[in-house]
Amino acid sequence: MPDTYDLEALRRVEFPWTTRGDRVYLNHASTGPLPMRARAALAIWTDWRGEPWRISDEMEFEVMDRARTHAARLVGAAPQEIALTTNTSHGINIAARCLPLRAGDIVVSSDREFPANVYPWMALEREGIIVNQIACTPAGLPDEERILAALERPRVKVLTLSWVSFATGYTVDLARLGRECRERGIYFVVDAIQGVGARVLDAPGCNIDILACGGQKWLLSPWGTGFAYIRRALAEQLEPREIGWLAVRGSRDFNRLVDYDFTWHDDARRFEVGTLPYQDLAAFCASMELLHEVSVARIATHVRSLVDAMTTRLREAGATVLTPAEAQRRAGILTVRVKNGQRVSEQLSAAGVVCGLREGAIRLSPHLYTTREDIDRALDVLVRAV
Ligand SMILES: Cc1ncc(COP(=O)(O)O)c(C=O)c1O
After folding, report:
1. Which of 117, 191, 211, 365 is the best mutation target for the ligand 1 pocket, counting ligand atoms within 8 Å of the beta carbon and taking the most?
2. 57 Cβ contact partners less than 8 Å away, ≥ 6 residues apart
3. Which residues neighbour 359 within 8 Å (Cβ) at sequence distance 6 or greater?
4. 190 lines ligand 1 (CB under 6 A)
5. What is the pLDDT of residue 1?
6. Which domain holds residue 112?
7. 172 and 213: one domain?
8. Which of 203, 208, 170 shows the shortest CA–CA distance to 189?
9. Looking at the structure, do residues 217 and 89 belong to the same domain, yes or no?
10. pLDDT at position 66, please?
11. Is 250 within a domain?
């Protein structure tokens, strides 16, 4: 398979606004734009929704099944290991509420996690569970050596981390951390929203137990879409704490609903709670189909080359790049410290460049359709500002 794809056709067909040239969008770490095929799927399902007799139960089940299949492929898993969720937080809550934890048990994490991966664990402190947030390095990056050392304590039951840090783009070594967790019988929970779609992932190969991912960023999907990966053995055993009528075995037979067979699905569907937004799932499917069509491996190569080019030019200009230089340590986010973040952000905006401002630093996040010309437009402003 060649490493490249037809960028020009991709932009014209799926992201036609790029051809106007008035905006360079480098903020996928915040919100991914919907490709045309997702917008079409939303429009079609919304039309049908206006005349609901045009949507059958089978169509609803089909779109859910397809979404699980595409999501599974993104993380190297089986569809039976995927529960559809409405955001990342939902997946983290499945982990925090369903993993067997008792008073005195320890949950290890890093101290600058995005709050979606903090509060669900902090809430457990009321039940006597201890949350141990390991301080980041002086450079503000997760300190993997200290995290690994913290796993040696006897009551550690969970390690929960972001795959890719929202503020710095630092990408943890999932394979190593997962291996160390498995050897110690510690559950490994991952907030993967900033990585999935921009990098290839083998969740089972990395010994991840539960992974949470929203669709709204790198998956270019509507708000209210997302999924959780729950390792097969856990998906078959863990007791859901939020109870959905679609989570049980007989739920697809609408003629026998009041038989009340309270037997969980024998897969991750047991964690799905009630009716989902089918029109959004249709768009979620369309966007994931685009990612698979282009191939996440190729997207990762493309995004890496853009981040490489930005890193080189910014470092040459003497900028303080917070994102590590090693390719294995980053995904699609590049964060650079500037003297006056607010002012530089306004200058970028005046040049038509949309990027993020996080913790005082400029965050640039290109994706599959971003060109070298796009990033040059951002860099021209940034190198003047450092
Ligand atoms: C690391 C990380 N986790 C989670 C989220 C969002 O969580 P949710 O999908 O629950 O809104 C974000 C960004 O908004 C994020 O950067």
Report:
1. 191
2. 252, 254
3. 140, 167
4. no
5. 60
6. 45-292
7. yes
8. 208
9. yes
10. 98
11. yes
Last residue of a domain, one of 234, 264, 292: 292
Q: Is 110 in the pocket of ligand 1 (CB under 6 A)?
A: no
| CB 220 within 8 Å of CB 284 | no
pLDDT digits (tens, 9 = 90+) for 206-261: 999 999 999 999 999 999 999 999 999 999 999 999 999 999 998 888 888 999 99
Q: Which amino acid is at 94?
A: I
Q: From CA 31, how far away is CA 26, in angstroms rounded?
A: 10
| CB of 214 closer than 6 angstroms to any ligand 1 atom | yes
Whether residues 91 and 210 share a domain: the answer is: yes
Same domain, 228 and 356: no
Q: What is the DSSP string of 67-91?
A: HHHHHHHHTT--GGGEEEESSHHHH
Q: Residue 264 gets which letter from DSSP?
A: B
| 233 alpha carbon, distance to own chain's centre | 23
Residue in 107, 42, 75 with CA at minimum distance from that of residue 268? 75
CA dihedral 262, 267, 269, 270 (to 10 degrees): 40
Below-70 pLDDT ranges, the chain? 1-2
> Is 237 part of any domain?
yes
Residue 108 domain-assigned (yes or no)? yes
The residue out of 231, 265, 292 marking a domain boundary is 292
Residues 257 and 220 in one domain: yes
Whether residues 79 and 25 share a domain: the answer is no
For residue 188, what is the DSSP state? E
Residue 209 lies in a domain: yes
Output helix, strand, coil percentages for the chain, rounded to the nearest 5: 45, 15, 40
Question: Does the CB atom of residue 87 touch ligand 1 within 6 A?
Answer: yes
Same domain assignment for residues 300 and 319: yes
Is 138 exposed, middle or buried, given 0-12, 13-18 or 19+ CB atoms closer than 10 A? exposed
Cα(164) to ligand 1 centroid in Å equals 11
Identify whether residues 205 and 313 lie together within a single domain: no
The C-alpha atoms of residue 259 and residue 129 are separated, in whole angstroms, by 38
166 CB less than 6 Å from ligand 1?
yes
Q: Which residues contact 44 (CB under 8 A, 6 or more apart)?
A: 282
The residue written with tokens 């500002």 in the block is 385
